[in-house]
Design brief:
By secondary structure, the protein is an alpha/beta fold. It has helices at about 5-10, 45-50, 75-90, 105-115, 130-135, 160-165, 180-185, 185-195, 195-205, 215-220, 275-285, 290-300, 325-340, 360-375, 385, 400-405, and strands spanning about 15, 30, 55, 70, 95-100, 120, 145-150, 170-175, 210, 225-230, 240-245, 250-255, 260-270, 310, 315-320, 345-350, 380, 395, 415-420. A nine-stranded mixed β-sheet has the order 6-7-5-8-9-10-11-12-13, sandwiched between helices. Strand 12 (about 250-255) and strand 13 (about 260-270) form a beta hairpin. Helix 11 (about 275-285) runs antiparallel to helix 12 and helix 13 (about 325-340) packs parallel to helix 14 (about 360-375). It is globular and about 70 Å long. The protein starts with a helix and ends in a 14-residue tail after the last strand.
Length: about 425
C-alpha cells in the first residue's frame, strides 16, 4: 500500500497506537518490533480491543482477504513516512529542539509560554526518539498553530533522521555536553550529532535558529544561519541575568539594550535552568507573545518527573534530579548546590551511564570536584563511583543505600539526589 492510500485510512481513524494494551476505538495500530517483542503477534488483539486497522510487516499475521490488516515492508519506516506525510499536508510551523541537557525542560517552558497565545502541539514527556517523534507529529491537527518537537540522540545520524521526519522550520540546541559518549565516540561526536539540526535547517534555507550566545560550541557550528540570540550580553535579542537561587531560580530579562526589565520568580531549582528559561523568553518574544504572559507562564511552571524538583519531607528538604545524569549536568548540579544557602547539606549521587571509555575519568572528576567543594556528607551509589579514589561511603545500588537509611535516617538537611535513571535513586526519596 502506498503512503497516500495509507494516509486516507489514517484520516478515517481516531488516532495512532503502537501499544496493543491501549487501542482506543477506531484507532490505527502499527505493529513495531523490539529486542524482546514482535508487535505483529498482537495485531489481532489490537483489532479485537478497539483498533479499526492493524499495520503489520509479516505476511503470516495478515489473514488473506481481511481488509482490516494492512501489510507493509517495514512498520517503523511506515510510521515515520506517515508522520512526515501528515506533517507536510498540514504545514504547521515546527520548532525542533535538541541538546545534551535541558531539552525536555526547555521544551516544556517554550510550550508553556507559546500556549498562552497559540494552539500548540508539543512532545509529551520525552518521546523524542524515532518512534516518539512520529507519534508526536501524528497528533497534529489542523487547528494547531505551532508544534514544538523534541529530538533526542545517542548515536551519530540520529538528529539527521529525526529532522528529516519532522522537517522543522526553526531550531534550538540547548547545549552540548558529555553524554552518551559510548554511542557518540567522543565529545566531538556529540557536537557533530547535535549540529545535525543546524545542518538540516541550513539545507532547508531561510530557516531560523535560536542560539545561546554564551555557548562557544554552538556559535562555532551555527555558521551563517539566521540567528536569534539570547544570553548575558546587553546587545542580544534577549538578555538576562540570574538574580536569585535559594532555592528557586529568579532571573531578569529584557529585549535588547533598551527593553523593559522583567523579573521572573520561577519554581525551577538551579542556576543551570536559567538558559532554558531565557530560551523560552526568546522564542515567546519572537512569536510576539505579550511579555506579561511570558512571565506568568514561566513563574507558574512546575517541573515534574524527578527533574530538579524540590520536595519537603517531615525530616529534610530534597532536590530531586534523578531522571538522568552525565558529566556536564552532574557538575552543574553540584556547583549550583554548592552555592545554595543551607546550613546542613548532603549529596546522594548515582553513577552516570553510557559514558563509554571515558567513564572512569569522568567519575573521578566528579569525586575530585566534591572534595574541592569541601562536601563531607556524601553517599555514592553504583559500581562506577565505587571504582574511583575517594573516602566517601559507597553503596552498590539503591536498595543497599535504602537499607542504610532505614538504620540511620538523616534529619534537618538539604539533600541533592542526582544520578542516571538506571540507578533508580527515585526509590530513595521515600526513606528521606
Amino acid at each position: 500500500m502506498d503512503i497516500t492510500a495509507l494516509y486516507r485510512i489514517f484520516r478515517e481513524c481516531t488516532c495512532v497506537t503502537t501499544d496493543s494494551r491501549n487501542c482506543p476505538e477506531g484507532s490505527l495500530f502499527i505493529a513495531l518490533k523490539g529486542d524482546t517483542f514482535n508487535g505483529n503477534a498482537f495485531a489481532a488483539k489490537a483489532l479485537e480491543t478497539g483498533s479499526a486497522y492493524a499495520v503489520v510487516d509479516e505476511a503470516a499475521y495478515a489473514p488473506a482477504g481481511d481488509t482490516h490488516y494492512i501489510l507493509v515492508d517495514n512498520c517503523l519506516h511506515t510510521l515515520q513516512q506517515l508522520a512526515n506525510y501528515h506533517r507536510r499536508q498540514l504545514g504547521t510551523r515546527i520548532i525542533g529542539i535538541t541538546g545534551t541537557n535541558g531539552k525536555t525542560t526547555t521544551k516544556e517552558l517554550i510550550s508553556a509560554v507559546l500556549s498562552t497565545t497559540y494552539n500548540v502541539l508539543f512532545t509529551q514527556g520525552n518521546l523524542n526518539n524515532p518512534i516518539g517523534v512520529p507519534l508526536t507529529l501524528l497528533r497534529l491537527k489542523a487547528e494547531h498553530e505551532l508544534g514544538v518537537v523534541e529530538m533526542g540522540a545517542s548515536h551519530p545520524g540520529d538528529i539527521k533522521e529525526l529532522a528529516e521526519i519532522a522537517e522543522p522550520d526553526y531550531g534550538i540546541i540547548t547545549n552540548v555536553g558529555k553524554a552518551h559518549l559510548e554511542g557518540f565516540g567522543s565529545f566531538e561526536g556529540v557536537i557533530k550529532t547535535k549540529g545535525e539540526l543546524y545542518d538540516y535547517l541550513r539545507q532547508r534555507g531561510k530557516s531560523t535558529i535560536f542560539i545561546h550566545q554564551d555557548n562557544p560550541y554552538l556559535r562555532e557550528i551555527a555558521g551563517e544561519l539566521n540567528h536569534i540570540t539570547y544570553g548575558n550580553e546587553d546587545d542580544l535579542y534577549i538578555n538576562g541575568h540570574v538574580t536569585g537561587n535559594s532555592p528557586y531560580l529568579t532571573f531578569e530579562w529584557k529585549a535588547g539594550k533598551e527593553g523593559e526589565l522583567h523579573e521572573v520568580p520561577t519554581q525551577l531549582i538551579g542556576e543551570y535552568n536559567f538558559p532554558n528559561a531565557l530560551a523560552a523568553v526568546t522564542i515567546g518574544h519572537f512569536f510576539e507573545v505579550e511579555p506579561d504572559r511570558i512571565d506568568k507562564a514561566l513563574s507558574e511552571y512546575v517541573p515534574q518527573n524527578n527533574r530538579s524538583q524540590l520536595k519537603k519531607t517531615t525530616d529534610n528538604t530534597l532536590i530531586i534530579d534523578a531522571y538522568n545524569a552525565n558529566h556536564t549536568s552532574m557538575m552543574a548540579a553540584i556547583s549550583n548546590f554548592r552555592n545554595m544557602q543551607a546550613q546542613h547539606k548532603m549529596l546522594i549521587l548515582g553513577d552516570m551511564r553510557e559514558l563509554g571509555k571515558d567513564s572512569p575519568l569522568e567519575h573521578q572528576k566528579i569525586v575530585d570536584y566534591l572534595e574541592e567543594c569541601g562536601f563531607d556528607d556524601v553517599a555514592l551509589v553504583g559500581e562506577l563511583f565505587a571504582a574511583t579514589r575517594h573516602t566517601y561511603p559507597t553503596y552498590p545500588d539503591a536498595p543497599a543505600l535504602i537499607a542504610e537509611l532505614q538504620q540511620h535516617k538523616p534529619c534537618g538537611k538539604m539533600i541533592l539526589i542526582k544520578g542516571s535513571n538506571g540507578i533508580k535513586l527515585n526509590t530513595v526519596v521515600d526513606y528521606l
